[in-house]
Structure to design on (72 residues):
């Protein structure tokens, strides 16, 4: 079920991840394989930061509202 959702997504966003817990940590790779743009919003770099197209670092309480404002 999750792979079907990842196959259809255009943008995959991970918010507040360590990148160490699987299978969730592998979702970025699956989404990217299907052509999604990938974004990590995180307090610090994670184990999977290099896998994302873009990473923004800082507290989620700041990053998420800024990102949502960009989208709307």
């Amino acid at each position: 079920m999750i792979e079907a959702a990842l196959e259809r997504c255009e943008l995959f966003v991970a918010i507040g991840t360590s990148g160490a817990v699987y299978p969730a940590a592998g979702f970025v790779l699956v989404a990217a394989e299907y052509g999604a743009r990938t974004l990590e919003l995180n307090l610090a770099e994670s184990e999977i930061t290099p896998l994302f197209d873009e990473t923004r670092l800082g507290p989620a309480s700041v990053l998420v509202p800024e990102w949502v404002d960009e989208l709307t």
Observations:
- The helical segments are 2-8, 27-33, 60-71.
- The first helix runs from residue 2 to 8.
- The mean pLDDT is 96.
